[in-house]
Amino acid sequence: MKTHQDSGFTTRAVHESCGFSENTGAVMPPVYLTSTFENGNPSGFDYTRSGNPNFRLLQQSAASLEGAQFATCFASGVSAITAVVSTLKSGDLVVAEENVYGCTYRLFDKVFSKFGVQVRYVNLADEANWQVIRDTKPALVWLESPTNPLLKVVDIAGISAVAKEVGAPTVVDNTFASPYLQRPTELGATLSLSSTTKYTNGHSDCLGGIVATNDPAWQDKMIFAQKALGLQPSPFDAWLTARGQRTLALRMERHSANALDLASWLETRKGVKMVRYPFLPSHPQHALAKKQMKSGSGIFLAELDCSSEQALEFCRRLKLFTLAESLGGVESLICHPPTMTHASVPREVRHKVGIGDGLLRFSVGIEDVADLRRDIDETLKAILG
Ligand SMILES: *Cc1c(COP(=O)(O)O)cnc(C)c1O
């Protein structure tokens, strides 16, 4: 297989996941729908739970795009999280950013707590709290940037350096940025984890997860978890993810441009209380976002000056934004955290952490921005007058 180490991001994205087609001339790799392989084959495959040509191609390109030596693919983002946390043992402590993804919180709270893994949640956007890492010397530091749903930006290089002082590995959930916009291992993190379901695949047609690292010991643990815990994707999903990955750069450019356009326009519009987007100067960590990200990605928040019911009605009336969870696909989606992702959180607690009744999370697709803007404008007029 040819490698493209010295090429740019998009060249690598297009070429690194091609191969295994030497005898056919096929420009794109086939899907290897096989559970097992003949013993002694030259590529070293034995059984699909522990490896498949489609995994190998995806892992090679994912590592390359993350700027890391290794990557392991999983069935979903949650599988990737499970793989990382499964390396801990009873009594180990995780210091985690307090605004982690809901399913990450649920895994720690409902599953790994039963095995004695403890988690201390702190606000890692406040540098004063990094002292907790020095004081507790945790087995793992867990962060996300930008966070879901509040789009808090957390200093990956700063926290990774503090964790390194006490020998703690740092995991960054990079799902909201994608490796095109932000590469955690280059910033000093031990592991970069993504739900490839979102931007990397980008077409909302399969689930997947990736963990990238430069540490051979961590790579061994990830390969072990893929096989021993049965966390592997299907060959077809790995193929779809590699297909999506080839256009990641182009899509991220468009997602970011569309989101920046809509967010800055909405910020000036009557009836909109607050807009939050990492690449707007009004974002509290705007300077840090510009330092560690290439652009702002496709997700922004807007809080309408209205009731929860009106906000939901706004979502339902939009024509180009579908009311749905998830993000990162070519199509625009909208989510109302108070009644969807954060419905189980009591209203007072929601308000305290900044999730007001009129809060909306936009996942801006790659459609023509003029159409998206008109859709939002007409719907706002209908709801707020
Ligand atoms: C969606 C998501 C996950 C989980 O990924 P799945 O592919 O849905 O299992 C993890 N982290 C973040 C930040 C996500 O948005």
Compact overview of the structure:
This protein has helices at residues 9-15, 53-66, 77-85, 102-111, 131-136, 156-165, 178-181, 216-228, 235-245, 248-267, 286-292, 308-317, 347-352, 369-384, and strands at 70-74, 93-97, 118-122, 140-144, 170-173, 191-195, 209-213, 272-276, 299-304, 322-323, 333-335, 359-363. It is an alpha/beta fold and 385 residues long. β4 (140-144), α6 and β5 form a beta-alpha-beta unit.
Explained architecture:
The protein is α/β, with parallel strands linked by helices. Helix content is 37%, strand content 14%. Helix 1 (9-15) packs antiparallel against helix 2, helix 2 packs parallel to helix 9 (235-245) and helix 12 crosses helix 14 (369-384). Bound molecules: pyridoxal-5'-phosphate. Pyridoxal-5'-phosphate binds at residues 76-78, 101, 103, 144, 148, 173, 175-176, 195, 197-198, 207, 209.
Key descriptive features of the protein:
37% helix; 12 strands; five-stranded mixed sheet; Aspartate Aminotransferase, domain 1; seven-stranded mixed sheet; alpha/beta; 14 helices; Aspartate Aminotransferase, domain 2; 385 residues; binds pyridoxal-5'-phosphate; 2 domains
